[in-house]
Amino acid sequence: MSYVDEVIEQVVKQNPAEPEFHQAVKEVLESLRVVVEANEEKYRKNALLERLVNPERQIKFRVPWVDDKGQVRVNTGYRVQFNSAIGPYKGGLRLHPSVNLGIIKFLGFEQIFKNSLTGLSIGGGKGGSDFDPKGKSDREVMAFCQSFMTELCKHIGANTDVPAGDIGTGAREIGYMFGQYKRIREVYEGVLTGKGLSYGGSLARTEATGYGLLYLTQELLSMNGISLEGKVIAVSGSGNVAIYAIEKAQQLGAKVVTASDSTGWVYDPEGIDVAALKEIKEVNRARLTEYKKYRPNSEYHDGRGVWSVKVDIALPCATQNELTLEDAKQLVANGCIAVCEGANMPTTLDATEYLQKNGVIFAPGKAANAGGVATSALEMSQNSERLSWSFAEVDAKLKDIMVNICHNMANAAERYGAKGNYVVGANIAGFEKVVDAMEAQGIV
Ligand code: NDP
Fold this sequence. Notes:
By secondary structure, the chain is of the alpha/beta class. The chain has 17 helices and 13 strands. The chain has helices at residues 3-14, 19-38, 40-45, 48-53, 101-117, 138-152, 171-185, 205-223, 240-251, 274-283, 291-294, 325-333, 349-357, 365-368, 371-385, 391-415, 422-440, and strands at 57-66, 72-83, 89-95, 123-129, 161-164, 232-236, 255-256, 258-260, 264-267, 299-302, 313-316, 338-340, 361-363. The strands form three sheets. A five-stranded mixed beta sheet has the order 1-2-4-3-5. Strands 7-6-11-12-13 form a five-stranded parallel beta sheet, sandwiched between helices. A three-stranded antiparallel beta sheet has the order 8-9-10, with no helix packed on it. The protein is globular, with a radius of gyration of 21 Å. The chain starts with a helix and ends with a helix. It binds NADPH dihydro-nicotinamide-adenine-dinucleotide phosphate.
């Protein structure tokens, strides 16, 4: 059996009931097959792949807090410190009821390659909890965040592990967590990114993942001789990534006609009204059912459905496995030319393969959504310097980074005989630097 297959089999056996982690490992290792085969003897001897798929450390802890009725609630907290070969662990904190160890491990594993792809010195990690901030009062969210950080603060630091936001963790949660870290550890340092501007945050961090997604999409299309201007786009999600993806797409002359949340989706043939979306989601923390009040000509539908709309480009920006084989078939039938992932692993493996086989340009999340973590690393640099850069400066650096990522993944794919396969290209380009650093640092 080949080394890649052996390691995939081991991962499935040793990590039962973690299907998302298995999926991520399979996706990455399959696309690295050609590199691994070229170095099989050396990698096997040094158990390189076994070390790559085993987190350096994983922490699981109890998070007790008191709700507004005086009832004690208990959630589970996680931090998986996956790989620090090229820099301190870096990756977001997800707060969502679906969170479990397997999901955090899938995200942490993907993060290693994504962070490497940015060209910045950041290792891979991820964390979170099964706490659901939805429907909680500010005081309850604060109680949870303080309890969560009371344990987490023992394991993180500006030079060891720097968490950030993710699903359910926005500026409010980061603020409460930063306050508690500072209070317990008695140190004012850039231990979290996605901070507010008044206490060390970076301009353009809020916009970074969505904007970065569009910078990469634009570059990728232009490499394929296609212009973004005038294209019709379907976006899923209506959170941080989706909102700023829609905003930038419109600034670049495209029209986004959909958005969704976990209860339903909207179709707005005239183009999504970003100001309305921001008010509903960022200010009122409400459901998308509200959207029709702002835009009477739009349609609201319960459940899933954004991929059934006829569009040129699809940008999944909600969550993992939200674009299935059936959706891919529908997109292809409707003449979709590109799918670029704003979320982490939103496209199932069979859907990805179907899209690629049918000539759809496909950019994987670890490249396409790397703008968020890249700008987080820029926030770390500003914190170290105790300086704040202007919006234009950060945005220009973000754009440069996304354009570089785009070329790096395209070149890596071509070098290994897989021209146009950006999944292979992104994984190989991310892997090369990490492996080089792991080999140089010996058996650790
Ligand atoms: P938010 O919490 O701001 O928004 C998530 C959006 O997705 C919401 O509209 C939410 O709807 C929807 N959603 C979440 N879970 C589900 C589900 N199970 N089914 C259907 N819809 C769902 O998160 P972000 O925008 O920050 O993150 C979105 C994706 O992008 C995630 O995969 C994240 O890992 C990835 N990402 C985020 C980065 C960032 O900088 N924020 C960086 C890189 C990747 P509802 O409000 O109803 O829950």
